[in-house]
Amino acid sequence: xxxxxxxxxxxxxxxxxxxxxxxxxxxxxxxxxxxxxxxxxxxxxxxxxxxxxxxxxxxxxxxxxxxxxxxxxxxxxxxxxxxxxxxxxxxxxxxxxxxxxxxxxxxxxxxxxxxxxxxxxxxxxxxxxxxxxxxxxxxxxxxxxxxxxxxxxxxxxxxxxxxxxxxxxxxxxxxxxxxxxxxxxxxxxxxxxxxxxxxxxxxxxxxxxxxxxxxxxxxxxxxxxxxxxxxxxxxxxxxxxxxxxxxxxxxxxxxxxxxxxxxxxx
Length: 266
Prior knowledge:
Structural class: alpha/beta
Number of strands: 16
Number of helices: 4
Shape: globular
Order of helices and strands: EEEHHEHEEEEHEEEEEEEE
C-alpha cells in the first residue's frame, strides 16, 4: 500500500514520492481588492510553503484543481503570476501534474508546456486516485484503494457558549460505506481524504455544521460513512469523529470535550 502522510503544519499530502496540494486560487487577491480590501499577492508565500513541504524523497508535484481563482474569465494577476509560479517549481520537481478543477477553465493558457494537465475526472497512481471533487471521477480512479479530493476547503467550526465562532482548516478523512455501490462503477475505493485549501486566504468551509451542505457529488452521495469520518487539525491533532462534533446554530460548543490525539494516517 502506498504510504500517505500529511505534512505537519502545511495543507499538503505526501503520497509516496509525490507532494499533493489543491485549491491554490492564484489571483484571489485581485477579487478581494475589487471589493475594497488592500492586499498584496501571497503567491510567493505559497511557492515557499510548497518547497518547505517537499522533503528529499519528493520529486513530483500534483495539484488537484483550482490553480486559478477567476471563473469565468481571468485577471491580470493570474496571467502575470501563474506561468512564473510553475516554471520556478520545476527547479525543485521533475514532474508536475494539474488535475482540472471547476475554476480551471482554459488553464492550458497559463501553464508551461511541461505541466501535465489531467482531466477533471482525475488521475491515478498505483492504488491512490486524485480528483478535484466537483465532478464524478473516472471508473479507473474509483477503482483505487484511496481517493484524494480537494474542492471543499474543509474546516472545523468552534463555537463558545456566547455564540462566538471561529474556524480552522482541517483534514477530513474517512471510509466508503461497507457494501456501498454505484451503477457507474464496478468497484469503489476503501477510504477517502479531503485536503484543506492550500491558499490560506480562502479560509475554509466548516464540515461539522448541521444542515451545511458539502460540495461535490461524492460527498453528497450515500457512498461515504461521513459520521465516522475523522477531522484533524494541520498540527496533527485528531479532533474525533465528525458525527460527534456536529453543531447547529448557536448551540454550546462541544469541542471542549473533543479528544486531543496526534495520529498518523494508517
